[in-house]
Design goal:
With about 400 residues, the protein is of the alpha+beta class. It is built from four helices and 23 strands. A six-stranded antiparallel barrel has the order 4-13-16-15-14-17. The longest helix is centred in the N-terminal third of the chain and has 43 residues.
Length: about 400
């Protein structure tokens, strides 16, 4: 063999050795371990078909009042604070009532004077009546002249008219007392219903101004009836025909994380709302079955509703996030991932019904978001330690 041939042989052998070494290192030192995946077991249970609101719902109050006094004045007593619970008729604040008290006292005294004048006028009329009756009998015996009798009758009629006028004055004075009392009552602001005080926008010693026609004044106190709370939620217009009154609903509330509450539909809007740059929606109103819990919610809190259309019990089910868009799932066969086509029934965010393609006890992959989860990949099932 020539020297040139020997050199090429040596070079080829060296190259093959390097390739072989690379393959060995790739399969040993640099070899990647199997992709870790999480799985879920095919079980039997209930699956619900649901629809959800298209945008966040809101806790609202059917009975909510912005309260203010009926007259102007300085606040001399503020008897509630924000968050307080009050009963119907309970005093919330008082204004300085010095002037209305004086006006009421004056009206009461005027009423007393009117009563006295009425009594005096009626006594005079009674006396004139008796005088006329006595002289009428004497006139029949020609003891008293007709002129005298006419004069007595005129005196009686006049006294009777004075009595009637005085009685009318009594009624007017009584009405003036009622007006003065009404003005005095305006200095006290009372709760119109059992309520939670959502806001108080005035302080002790400040001047309160009532609203006048064409000019709105700020409300002093915002009161909410806790028994009238409900959840307003916008539903996509395409689902309008699926909704009806008393339909079962599941509610989740931002202020109560990781919890859901049973509820029902109490009202469907009679029209579809068309808001610019938003989907057309149908507003529904939902009330919680637990009225005690409902009364503790704060108006304005975000909430989501899930309207339950259908419930199927004792069916095969897997987590919905284990199902790919084309109704395929990954299962682990040996140490490799294998895609399997399945047939599905109803589903919601949590569970999907399986009608064919899987059997009870099968394990499906749930960690589909991991980049190494592809068909044929070498995998190992990840062990998840349960929290103590």
């Amino acid at each position: 063999m020539s020297k040139t041939s020997k050199k090429w042989t040596i070079r080829v052998m060296a190259a093959l050795s390097l390739v072989l070494l690379g393959l060995v290192l790739r399969r040993t030192v640099f070899a990647q371990g199997p992709e870790l995946v999480r799985t879920a077991t095919v079980t039997r249970g209930s699956v619900e078909s649901t629809i959800t609101n298209s945008r966040a719902g809101t806790v609202e109050a059917r009975t909510r009042a912005g309260l203010s006094t009926g007259t102007a004045g300085i606040v001399v007593a503020l008897e509630v604070q924000r968050g307080a619970r009050v009963k119907r008729g309970q005093t919330l604040l008082r204004l300085d009532d010095t002037k209305p008290q004086s006006e009421l006292l004056y009206a009461q005294r005027q009423h007393e004077v009117a009563l006295a004048r009425n009594a005096r006028a009626c006594v005079t009329a009674d006396r004139a009546s008796r005088a006329w009756e006595r002289n009428e009998a004497l006139a029949r015996e020609s003891v008293v002249s007709e002129d005298r009798l006419d004069a007595l009758r005129t005196t009686y009629d006049s006294a009777l008219a004075e009595c009637v006028v005085a009685a009318a004055d009594v009624k007017m004075a009584a009405a003036a007392v009622e007006v003065a009392q009404a003005e005095l009552d305006k200095t006290v602001l009372r709760a119109p219903f059992d309520a939670i005080i959502a806001d108080v926008s005035i302080e002790l010693g400040e001047w309160a101004t009532p609203s006048v026609p064409l000019m709105a004044a700020p409300d002093l106190i915002d009161a909410i009836d806790p028994s009238s709370l409900y959840i307003s939620a916008p539903m996509d217009e395409v689902d309008a025909l699926l909704l009806h009154l008393d339909q079962r609903v599941r509610v989740t509330i931002d202020s109560h994380p990781d919890q859901s509450f049973r509820a029902h539909i109490v009202r469907l809007a009679p029209f579809v709302l068309d808001v610019e740059q938003q989907n057309r929606t149908l507003e529904i109103e939902v009330e919680l079955d637990d009225t005690k819990l409902s009364s503790t919610l704060l108006p304005g809190t975000s909430a989501d509703v899930e309207v339950i259309l259908e419930v199927r019990s004792d069916v095969l089910r897997i987590p919905t996030y284990a199902v790919m868009e084309d109704d395929r799932v990954f299962i682990v066969q040996g140490e490799a991932l294998v895609a399997r086509q399945v047939e599905t029934g109803i589903r919601n965010w949590n569970w999907t019904e399986i009608t064919a393609g899987l059997v009870l006890g099968d394990e499906v992959v749930t960690s589909l978001e991991r980049p190494g989860v592809v068909g044929g990949a070498q995998v190992a099932v990840e062990t998840v330690e349960e929290e103590p």
